[in-house]
Every structure is written in structure tokens, then in C-alpha cells.
Design brief:
Layout lengths: L32 E7 L5 E3 L4 H9 L3 E4 L2 E4 L4 H16 L3 E6 L27
Parallel strand pairs: 1-5
Antiparallel strand pairs: 1-2, 2-4, 3-4
Amino acid sequence: MRAGRTRCPHDFKDFMPSYSPEDPSHHTATDHGQVVLTWQQDSSLVTSPVGETAATVLAEHGFVHQGDGIYRLDGDDTAAQARAVRAIGPRLGTRGIHTRLQHPPRAGTPTATPKRTQPAPTRAPSRTR
């Protein structure tokens, strides 16, 4: 890190364990999918809908069920939040569930690339004699 720059309090490269693609506990034959954790404006984390296996792990680490398989982790205590995020990665990984962390899309940011339209062909002016 360059001198004079402060560190973002939500730099999750420090929170999530690093995995090697060769690590058998990371990629297993019983891969059930992934849990997507999305930052909210209030600093809480909200999960994508999860199944029963992931729900148990999340609940054991302070995530609260919000309905429809969605869990929320309060952002009031960032140290506790960081510990929870660090802990769930390996636990879910051993169950074949990948963990992904993301920021919500910014307002006004398109979620898809707009379709390009071809300009209408133009005719060269004809010369008449």
C-alpha cells in the first residue's frame, strides 16, 4: 500500500481465506452452489437465498433469517462481522458451497450492456444530368 492512503474498512481480501484451485476441500464433487454476500447501505451483509446446509452455518455465526432463505448480518460491530465472514468461508467450502462477496450495484449503473443499434444506411446523393 502506498504511503498516505488509508485502507477501506471493508477490504474483504483480508477477511476471506484464500483458496488454491488444487485444494480438494474447495472444489468437491458435492458442490451445492454459492452464497452471495452483498453489502447494504447500513453496512450489514445480506445473503442470496440459501439452502438448509448454508443456513445452519450462517445462523451459527450471527446471521439472522429474514425469510425466503435470506440471512442478514448486522454491521454495527465490524470486528464481529469480519470474524463471522472469515469463519463461514472455510465452513461452507468444506460443504462444497462457495462464498462470494459483492457491493450492491450503484444507482443508475446499468446491469446489462445496452444493445447496440446499427445506424441506418445512408445513400450518397445521386447526380442527375
